[in-house]
């Protein structure tokens, strides 16, 4: 009885539905053109210029962008937005609750980022002041609390959805580990050295003459001159004397940006529940704050 009351309360709180009835809450992907239009207008096309104007007025920290960079960020926003809309099942999860949670979170994050002790980045974690550590730990606690609740929501749906839901974390983890591997390779050349070593070994083996050719007695012609000597005594090491050169890559650095963290989280706030929709508004706002202020900075950069 209590579950039915909770479900009725949630439906009443969410208001009229704008998504097609055929979309399931366990859908891995979904798309509705009209809902996508609302989604992009609410979370990209409207907040992007508004944030830039307000940031300029109050002198918030933002990257200076040319018209070309604005165009690039908007088009990338449409692309990234389409991906998270489709695979985050926002055709089903999008509601006015998400929009209401989005805008206070967007400007709230900006105000927190303007505090003197938060003007730092993740790569400089060793030099963080105590204030930044407090903000970080509080944010981490909130994220973990939301994560636990979302796993609970996933577990209430028919199997094997919760398995897919949890295992989906392997995708961003793989991308992060691959970036770490690229950074390590750029400074240590492990693959390059291994490849060159194998190539040198194969070349050395090819340069060795067969044993029977090296030890067979030299034949002599009628004048007592040796024949066939040239074929066995020529320099068989001519191809193996050259030492392969290891060409090192230009060093690169790893910089995990907050827009990447919250963009990944926005794939998991996919449930048709008010708490999940509030969480969706928060993570989408933190993601968009990074885009509005700085743009789509890369995870791996030239050092």
From TrEMBL:
Residues 209-239 are annotated as: Disordered. Keywords: Membrane, Transmembrane, Transmembrane helix. The chain crosses the membrane at residues 36-55, 67-87, 93-112, 133-155, 161-184. This is Uncharacterized protein. It comes from Umbelopsis ramanniana AG.
């Amino acid at each position: 009885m209590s579950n039915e009351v909770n479900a009725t309360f949630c439906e009443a709180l969410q208001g009229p539905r704008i998504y097609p009835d055929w979309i399931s809450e366990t859908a891995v992907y979904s798309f509705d053109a009209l809902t996508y239009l609302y989604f992009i207008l609410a979370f990209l096309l409207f907040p992007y210029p508004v944030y830039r104007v307000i940031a300029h007025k109050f002198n918030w920290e933002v990257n200076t962008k040319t018209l070309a960079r604005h165009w690039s960020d908007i088009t990338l926003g449409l692309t990234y937005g389409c991906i998270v809309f489709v695979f985050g099942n926002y055709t089903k999860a999008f509601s006015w609750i998400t929009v209401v949670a989005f805008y206070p979170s967007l400007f709230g994050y900006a105000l927190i980022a303007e505090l003197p002790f938060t003007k730092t980045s993740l790569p400089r974690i060793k030099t963080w002041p105590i204030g930044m550590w407090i903000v970080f730990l509080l944010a981490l606690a909130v994220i973990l609390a939301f994560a636990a609740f979302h796993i609970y929501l996933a577990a209430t749906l028919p199997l094997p959805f919760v398995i897919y839901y949890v295992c989906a974390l392997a995708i961003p983890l793989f991308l992060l580990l691959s970036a770490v591997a690229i950074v390590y390779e750029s400074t240590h050349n492990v693959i390059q050295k291994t490849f060159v070593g194998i190539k040198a070994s194969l070349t050395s083996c090819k340069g060795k003459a067969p044993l029977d050719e090296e030890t067979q007695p030299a034949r002599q012609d009628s004048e007592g001159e040796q024949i066939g000597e040239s074929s066995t005594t020529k320099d068989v090491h001519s191809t193996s004397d050259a030492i392969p050169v290891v060409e090192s890559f230009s060093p690169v650095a790893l910089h995990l940006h907050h827009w990447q963290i919250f963009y990944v989280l926005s794939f998991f706030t996919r449930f048709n529940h008010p708490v999940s929709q509030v969480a969706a508004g928060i993570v989408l706002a933190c993601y968009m704050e990074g885009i509005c202020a700085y743009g789509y900075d890369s995870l791996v950069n030239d050092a």
